[in-house]
């Protein structure tokens, strides 16, 4: 199949886990990312350039990175949820270590942590409001991801349709 960053990076993380064990961190992930990750566009290319220059995570994902607030890391959050079903704190920790490699101190990190915590919790919790609260509990209340999620929830609770919500 064609390369797919949504899946390929998750497979890369599985290789890192097989090699390093469960105690891996962002520096371990950064090493695998630098050596084996094939994508060179956007935040991926920036992180690889920074890693090759000796900058370690989270600096590898922050320095000269116009994409640190992008969606590139939360699209791979499910690997951490699937490896820690029902343990959102563990999924959130791994998601953070993952996201800082190529998103540094950006909102992309909070997005991955939020999603990974929710996905992990949904193995045992089905109520969407509770899942959202779980995800929000792992990110700063004042970050843009948290504010956007809270605004979306308020729009739903107010009964706004999609077009109305976009105007809020």
List the main descriptive attributes of the protein structure presented here.
single chain; about 170 residues; mainly alpha; about 65% helix
Would you mind describing this structure in some detail?
The structure is a single chain. The chain is mainly alpha-helical and 168 residues long. Helices cover 64% and strands 0% of the residues. The relative contact order is 0.11. The mean pLDDT is 96.
The overall pLDDT average reads 96
Portion in beta strands: under 5%
Classify the secondary structure makeup into a structural class: mainly alpha
Question: What is the molecular shape?
Answer: globular
Helix count equals: 10
N to C succession of SSEs? HHHHHHHHHH
Q: For the report, how would you describe the main beta sheet?
A: none
N- and C-termini, Cα separation = 41 Å
Q: Care to count the β-strands?
A: 0
Low-confidence stretches: none
Percent of residues in helices comes to 55-70%
The rounded Rg comes to 16 Å
Quick recap:
With 168 residues, the chain is mainly alpha-helical. The chain has helices at 5-20, 26-36, 42-52, 59-62, 78-83, 88-103, 107-121, 128-136, 144-157, 162-167. α2 (26-36) crosses α3 (42-52), α2 packs across α6 and α7 packs across α8 (128-136).
Secondary-structure map with pairings?
Layout: H1 5-20, H2 26-36, H3 42-52, H4 59-62, H5 78-83, H6 88-103, H7 107-121, H8 128-136, H9 144-157, H10 162-167
Helix pairs in contact: 1-2, 2-3, 2-6, 6-7, 7-8
């Amino acid at each position: 199949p064609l390369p797919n960053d949504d899946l390929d990076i998750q497979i890369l993380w599985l290789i890192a886990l097989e090699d390093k064990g469960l105690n891996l961190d962002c520096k371990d992930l950064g090493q695998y990312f630098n050596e084996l990750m094939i994508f060179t566009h956007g935040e991926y290319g920036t992180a690889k350039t920074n890693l090759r220059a000796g900058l370690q995570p989270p600096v590898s994902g922050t320095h000269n990175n116009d994409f640190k607030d992008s969606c590139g890391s939360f699209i791979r959050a499910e690997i951490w949820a699937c490896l820690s079903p029902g343990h959102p704190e563990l999924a959130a920790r791994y998601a953070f270590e993952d996201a800082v490699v190529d998103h540094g101190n950006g909102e992309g990190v909070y997005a991955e942590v939020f999603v990974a915590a929710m996905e992990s919790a949904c193995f045992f919790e089905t109520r969407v409001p509770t899942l959202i609260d779980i995800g929000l509990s792992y990110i700063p209340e004042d970050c843009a991801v948290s504010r956007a999620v809270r605004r979306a929830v308020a729009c739903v609770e107010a009964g706004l349709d999609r077009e109305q919500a976009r105007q809020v």
